Stage II sporulation protein E (SpoIIE) (Jiangella alba), 334 residues
Amino acid sequence: MAVLLASTLLLGLSMVQWESIVPAIALVLPLLFGGLFVPPRALAWLVGAVGFCLIAGGVVIGGGQTFLAVTVVVGITAVVSLGLARSRARLGLQGTMGESMLVDLRDRLAAQGRMPQLGRGWQIDLKHHAAERSSFSGDFAVASRSTDGRVLELALVDVSGKGHNAGTRALLLSGAFGGLLGSLPPDQFLPAANAYLLRQRWPEGFATAVHLVVDLTTGEYQVRSAGHPPAIHFHAGSGRWATLDTEGGLLGVYEQKHYEPVTGRLRPGDALMLYTDGLVEAPRRDLSDGIDKLQGEAERLVARGFDGGAQKLINAVASSDADDRALLLLWRTF
């Protein structure tokens, strides 16, 4: 701090002595540096020193229109620097560590959503996009594979809100739900997730989720839903997509001890599709119409194969980027 004050006073003296070499606008440099690295109280002293240099310069040099414009710019810079310093002080960070921390949190959220490697005969494809191209999304997925490799368990979750407003809650929930997944019997995962959300008492703390458990040996599966759009099963034998209507209350709204499963079996060539409501919802359009549109686009996908299909379906179905969108495809090749 002492170095910054000395540098500011030196700039002020140089500005008076060598006006043509050291312009008054140079006083923004210590302000910008101070905004990044100096605590708010110490920065106030630095702002005072800059103000003293400007007043002294105005008296000695004379305050023309150019000098007045420079004074306005320096004043705006001082206000911005003070605001930045207060923002840093809330987190106890210096410099650009706040942005680095946010990037790290975003990367951790993406890492927690990586799908495990599946055995021969199974493929999985997951894509999600944040609202308005934000770096954070309220949609996330967590997955776990049993130690013997036989059972795949995953959940696709949609946190209330969108973009960065929901991103912090999504990060917290992804860690909590990832710890629950695979650690509890399948029928206890959604009740435990619901109880966890209820304990948080967030003003906008609800979420929807779809929970899938698949036996990778037999292809038998269970799907449970907590207020989530229905999963869709493609039957290779008939060539048709069928919705799996499941019932269950939203997570974080009221206590619920049991979520009724829908069971089925994935045979060779079959596929399951999970998605969030941001993909099928649109203004002045019923949710069922959006699901019908998704099924129609999925039928076109069958002939080309499911590989890379999640991204293709999002591009074809999503009406806008105003909401977070996520889609997961799981299919059996043989």
